[in-house]
UniProtKB/TrEMBL annotation:
Originating organism: Artemisia annua
UniProt catalytic activity: (S)-malate + NAD(+) = oxaloacetate + NADH + H(+)
Keyword Aminoacyl-tRNA synthetase: no
Complex and partners: Homodimer.
Sorted UniProt keywords: NAD, Oxidoreductase, Tricarboxylic acid cycle
GO BP terms in the entry: malate metabolic process; tricarboxylic acid cycle
Residues annotated as domain Lactate/malate dehydrogenase N-terminal: 47-136
Molecular function terms, GO-annotated: L-malate dehydrogenase (NAD+) activity
EC id: 1.1.1.37
Gene Ontology annotations for the cellular component aspect, listed alphabetically: mitochondrion
Protein name (record): Malate dehydrogenase
Sequence ranges assigned to domain Lactate/malate dehydrogenase C-terminal in this UniProt record: 138-221
Family: Belongs to the LDH/MDH superfamily. MDH type 1 family.
Length: 221
């Protein structure tokens, strides 16, 4: 997904939202872009198909969100996606460097621990790398840590904060329950170990529940 602000809000001109080929929203339902228009009245949704239109879709973009690629099936790790998704991400990042080198890039495609370095390397080679503009999307780890912690501590999730550092796969996901607020009295070491493991395995839980039909796609949308 690509967002461009070539027009400005004050004039109530629409911004441009482009749907790249095979992108998740279109793949789920062709109605999605239209629902989005109703929600965001300042956005205009434009769909582009085919690699030959990648330049048109990306030109002038301020924000590019990359969810393209294959998801895990039960029994796979995120690393098992590397061989397919690395090439997809590399191609998209090469086009970003060419058509919108100053865009913010949010990387959803897994393995995020590897696709972000791939993007960085493509941008570095193109001379466009800016570490402040490239992000691996790991918000789900924070959401999961907060949800599981709130459940265990029996506090409303809306008031909970749990910092999560590290990467986005297995033991590289490090929820810092020692820094969580509010501090829950009465959580044992075993509770913290169990909460940590459940946070680290949250994506796997979803992949197994969907039984081969994808991953936490809608959460990212
Ligand atoms: N970072 C995260 O928190 C997070 C969360 C959910 C999913 N993911 C990752 O996002 C990716 C997509 O997962 P999903 O569950 O949405 O899968 P999905 O199969 O539902 O959607 C993937 C989309 O990518 C498209 N695609 C495939 N090859 C492409 C290409 N060469 N160019 C452009 N688009 C292409 C497919 O047509 C499909 O529409 C996976 O790698 C998954 O692991 C990451
Ligand atoms: O776990 C996955 O494969 C998808 C995503 O990274 C997630 O955390 O839900």
């Amino acid at each position: 997904m690509v967002v461009s602000s070539e027009n400005n809000l004050e004039n109530h001109e629409p911004h441009r939202l482009c749907w790249l080929p095979l992108q998740i929203f279109l793949a789920i339902s062709k109605k999605w872009p239209f629902n989005f228009i109703m929600i965001c009245k300042f956005y205009e949704a434009v769909g582009y198909m085919g690699e030959e239109n990648l330049g048109k879709a990306l030109e002038g973009a301020d924000l590019v969100i990359i969810p393209a690629g294959v998801p895990r099936k039960p029994g796979m790790t995120r690393d098992d996606l590397f061989n397919i998704n690395a090439g997809i991400v590399k191609g998209l990042c090469t086009a970003i460097a060419k058509y919108c080198p100053h865009a913010l890039v949010n990387m959803i495609s897994n393995p995020v621990n590897s696709t972000v370095p791939i993007a960085a390397e493509v941008f570095r080679k193109a001379g466009t790398y800016d570490e402040k503009r490239l992000f691996g999307v790991t918000t789900l780890d924070v959401v999961r840590a907060k949800t599981f912690y709130a459940g265990k501590a029996n506090v409303p999730v809306s008031g909970v904060d749990v910092p999560v550092v590290g990467g986005h796969a297995g033991v590289t996901i490090l929820p810092l329950f020692s820094q969580a607020t509010p501090q829950a009295n009465g959580l044992s070491h075993d509770d913290i170990v169990a909460l940590t493991k459940r946070t680290q395995d949250g994506g796997t839980e979803v992949v197994e529940a969907k039984a081969g039909k994808g991953s936490a796609t809608l959460s990212m949308a």
